[in-house]
Design a protein that fits this description.
alpha+beta, globular
């Protein structure tokens, strides 16, 4: 399969040209315009410090329907105890910085390099990127962040300092998304943790069809904390 080299224009080749591992292109930049163009085509950046920017569209794709979230009885009991409180979009830079300390499976180093942190913070300013924060006793115990377009949410990373805090963030997010008609939560690639929460693999073609339907809906912009 060809590996495309991106030019100055914020455009991408058809994601169906991605190689067996999902790698599609390299180069370009992390401007808000290019990032939005990428997510609209089911493409996302993922690279390590010192590497060129790499753009991916894996097949199969790992997705979760917000209404299909699986919450175990144990987790349900924990959430009913009121141990955690949850907020939205109150400290995005702090959440993404803590996510950067989490290593992805099979990766020897963090994938959230400084340029990516700055890029997603810029994307949060106009309301395309959002964070979920979980608090315990006034301290940030866990959270997640991702990109929102149409009725789709593209989860990028999560972290926890307290057991089950990231799961609490996911439960809250899915309930928030369901209440607002979201139909797709993209998890990118399979992880056992998300599989236990109800995520599943679908072929890239199915994912792209679902994405196309999501983009027919208007994007819920702005600070989501104002909607709570």
């Amino acid at each position: 399969m060809p590996l495309f080299v991106l030019g100055p224009s914020p455009s991408f080749p058809d994601p169906r040209f991605a190689g067996p591992g999902g790698l599609l292109a390299l180069g370009g930049d992390l401007s808000p315009e290019r990032l939005i163009a990428a997510y609209r085509q089911g493409i996302f950046p993922w690279y390590n410090e010192g590497d060129p920017i790499l753009w991916w569209s894996p097949d199969p794709r790992f997705i979760l329907e917000p209404c299909g979230l699986h919450v175990s009885r144990r987790l349900s009991r924990l959430l009913r105890q009121g141990r955690f409180s949850v907020t939205l979009d109150t400290c995005f830079p702090e959440v993404i910085s803590r996510c950067a300390l989490v290593h992805r499976q099979h990766q020897g180093d963090t994938w959230l390099v400084d340029d990516m942190i700055r890029a997603y913070c810029r994307l949060a300013e106009p309301g395309f990127c959002h964070s979920v924060e979980v608090w315990e006793g006034g301290a940030l115990a866990g959270g997640l962040y991702g990109v929102s377009l149409g009725s789709g949410f593209f989860a990028e990373s999560m972290f926890h300092h307290t057991a089950n805090a990231s799961k609490a963030a996911l439960v809250f997010l899915c309930r928030f998304l369901m209440d607002r008609g979201f139909t797709l939560l993209d998890c990118q690639v399979r992880t056992p943790h998300m599989e236990t929460m109800g995520a599943r693999e679908v072929e890239r073609g199915e994912f792209l069809n679902r994405l196309s339907l999501c983009l027919e809906r208007p994007t819920l912009r702005g600070r989501w904390s104002d909607l709570m």
